[in-house]
Amino acid sequence: MTFKTIAIFGSTGQVGRNIVQALLDCKKKKFHVIQVVLPSEKDTTQQAPNAETKVIDLNVLGQDEVSAMLRGVDVVVSALNGKGLQLQPKIQDSAAAAGVKRFYPSEYGMHHVYRRPGDDEGHIHPTDVDSYDFHIVKDADAKADFTHLRDLGDFLVETLCSPEVSENATLNVVSDHISYNEIAALLVKHSGKPVEKRIISEEDMHGYVANPSMIPNILSAESSFPADFWLQVKGIQGQGRFWRPRGQVHNDLFSDFKSRPFERYFQGQFS
Fold it and tell me: Residue limits of the NmrA-like domain (predicted)?
């Protein structure tokens, strides 16, 4: 089985743009990349000889029309998020009807399950600043998994280059397993600038999630995510639960894949 034509939904977002770039940069194979976008996004797609843009309104078109557009496509990648995820079932069903060989759902991250007390049940920031602030919930020594967006794109391309290895598999890629204290130390080492760690108690985190209007502006500024969601993710990290067992991390599955841990990332940013 070989893959040639790749259609990407959500190609103009942070994740989608990195996937498109990884496909265009691939040295092993030359992929034909189709960026499927809404009319409002047509001027923001990436331009390359082996890339094209198809403009459709998924909110209006039916499954048969989307399926017709996907005929001849080998792989569909969904990098949708937010409200766009509501369209993913239509895309997946349309891809199946069109005979698409493989579908990648928009499910690249950890399952963020908020846990109330007593309940049992990855933007590049500016570097030209005088100092850095880290907002950490609970435990700055708790290790968590982090994945660089470029690593996600490169890993996905490796699965397309070796389809027999990745067929019908749930695979995860992790760039680093590290604590915020360790990240802060590396940032000081490579930037030469101080890092101030602001610790938020778990009790305060739960209070903010219950009453988002009480969240201080400093905790929500310059973020595309709602502040309560951001705090939930930070809370799971601080509880030491934001990681996968090593047996569920597949970085070593492809010999040519090289991840970008924080040390390597900071070396590139500040060298």
Answer: 4-112
